[in-house]
Amino acid sequence: MMMVRKRSENLSEKHIRILQFLAEYQAKNNRPPSIREICSEVDISSTSVVNYDLDQLERRGFIIRDGRVSRGLRLTDKIKEVVGAFGDLIRIPVLGPIAAGIPLPDLQPGMTFFTENEANAVDIARSLLPAREKGNDLFALEVKGDSMIDAMINDGDIVVMKPAVDARNGEMVAVWLPENNEATLKYFFKEKDGYRLQPANPTMKPIFIGKNKQVEIKGKVVMVIRKMDTMRM
Amino acid sequence: MMMVRKRSENLSEKHIRILQFLAEYQAKNNRPPSIREICSEVDISSTSVVNYDLDQLERRGFIIRDGRVSRGLRLTDKIKEVVGAFGDLIRIPVLGPIAAGIPLPDLQPGMTFFTENEANAVDIARSLLPAREKGNDLFALEVKGDSMIDAMINDGDIVVMKPAVDARNGEMVAVWLPENNEATLKYFFKEKDGYRLQPANPTMKPIFIGKNKQVEIKGKVVMVIRKMDTMRM
DNA sequence: ATAATAACCGAACAGGCGTTCTGTGTCAAG
DNA sequence: CTTGACACAGAACGCCTGTTCGGTTATTAT
Q1: CATH of B89-225 among 3.40.50.970, 3.60.10.10, 2.10.109.10, 1.10.287.70
Q2: Are A227 and A156 in contact (CB under 8 A)?
Q3: Residues 6+ apart with CB under 8 A from B77
Q4: What pLDDT shows up at residue A212?
C-alpha cells in the first residue's frame, strides 16, 4: 500500500528565500524574475529545481504561474504572510469601530496583521508612512459617532494605529479609561504625578490621570484618513 | 548639407495607443507585455516596427528598455502625461499651503495635474477613492496654522480636492470670501436667499452669504489625510 | 522633379527562457 | 533491507522573445 506523506504547512528556508526574492524583484523591477534569475540569486543549482519549487509555491497559493510565457508568474497576496508588506501599497485591516463606549481591541506590540479581504481593509501608500515603518503591525479602526471630536476626528474617519502599551510625550494614543468605561484618542504626556491626556482641539481641556490610577494604552495613532464620499450633515 | 527635421513634441495616434496598452497591461498583469503582444494588440504588422516605435518612446522618456531581456521595458512616470493615472497608486501634486489668509489656487474644473516630483506630492491608493474617480484632476493643499479647526482639520493636514466652481448641498468646499479676504473649508448648502457655509464642528456657527454677495468656490474636498509623524503640540 | 528622411515591413536570426527527461540521493515507513 | 516519496540535478529541447537585415513606401524639403 502506497504511503502518502502529509505535507507540512511550514515552509522550508529555501521557499522563504524564494518568496523574499520574488517580492523584492517585483517591487524593484515591476516584473517578475525569470527562472534563471531565481536560480542564480537564490543559489539553486538547476532550473528544474526552481521549476519544482515554484510548482510547490503555486500549489500552496503563494504564486500563480502562466504556462509557457516568459516571466509568467504572479504573486498573490498570500505571499505577504511570509514576507510582510512590500511594494508601494500596504493593506491594513480595519478591525472594527471605535467610539467612546466601545472597548478597544486587546493587541500587543509586535503583533502582525494580514488580511486578503479588501472589503475590511484600507490601502495606504508606503510613501505616506515614515521610512522606517514596515507596516506589518498596523491596523485601523473606523470612528462611529461624535465622541472623538475632541481629537479633531470625525464620525466615519479611519484611524490607523500600531499596537502600543506605552507612549512618548506628544504621541497620540488610543486609551481605555476603565474608571470611566471609555475609550479616547488624545495626545499623551507624562506629568510629575501622573499623566495628561491632551485633546487635539486646543479649546478643550485635558484629562489628568493620577499615577495610582489605571490607564490602558492600546495603540498609537499613526494616521487619520477622512473620505468625503458620503454626506454626513 | 543634411537637414535635420525638428522632432515634434506631439505624439502620433499610434504612439498614444501603444502607451495606453502598456499602462493597461502593466496594471493588469504586473509585468510588461512582450513585443509580439504589443504587435497584435495595437495592430502593428511586424515586430520590427514595434521595436522602432519603442525606441522612439524611449528616446522621448516614456519608457526605459533593458536590452536582450524578455519583457525588458519599464514605464516611467512621464507616461501618465499621456494616459493619466493608472495602477493602484495615484500621485497627487501638493500645490501649496492653505490657511485663512492665503488666496486659494485659481483652478478650473477639468484641469488635469501631473507631477513627477514626489517631494511635492502625496500618493493615494486608488481603492480609497470612489470607483468613478479617475484621479487626473486631483490636487492637494497642506494646512498651515489653526484656521481650519472649524472644519475639523488640523495644522499639517493634507487636503485632497478637485477643482470646482459650484457644489451640491452637503459637499465640503474650499471657498474664497473676498469681503473677508479669507479662505475657508466648510460644508456648502444653498438656502432660500443665499448660501450657508456650515463648519464641520457641530458646536460652531455657520456663515450665511446673501445671494448678492460674492462667494468663490475653488474646489471640493475629496479626502483629508493626517499624518502623525511629527509632534504638533 | 529630386533627394533625404521617416516610417514601415517580412523574414531571419540569435539568444532568453520555461519545460521535460532521465537520472541520483535522502529519508521515512514497513 | 526494501520500497516509495520527495528533493535534487545536469542536459537538452522547444518555444518565446528581442534584434537585425535588407528592403519598400510615404512624406517632406528643396
Answers
A1: 2.10.109.10
A2: yes
A3: B91, B116
A4: 83
Amino acid, single-letter form, for residue B50: V
- To the nearest 10°, report the CA torsion of A85, A87, A88, A91: -30
Q: Which amino acid is at A124?
A: I
Class of CATH domain B13-83: mainly alpha
> Position B152: which residue type?
M
CA–CA separation, B52 and B19 (whole Å): 14
What is the distance between the alpha carbons of residues A124 and A142, in angstroms, rounded to a whole number? 15
- Reported as a single tens digit per residue, the pLDDT across A64-105 is 999 999 999 999 989 988 998 888 999 999 999 999 888 888
Check A172 against B88: CB less than 8 A apart.
no
Judge: B229–A118 Cβ closer than 8 Å, yes or no.
no
Inform me whether the C-beta atom of residue B163 falls under 8 Å from chain A C-beta atoms.
Answer: no
Closest CA to B152 of B107, B105, B119, B201: B201
pLDDT for A111 equals 72
Model-wide pTM > 0.80: yes
Q: Which residues are registered as beta bridge partners of B160?
A: B140, B223
Domain extents for chain B?
13-83, 89-225
The β-bridge partners of B202 are none
Cross-chain CB nearest to B154 (options A200, A227, A228): A200
Please report the ipTM that was assigned to this predicted complex.
0.84
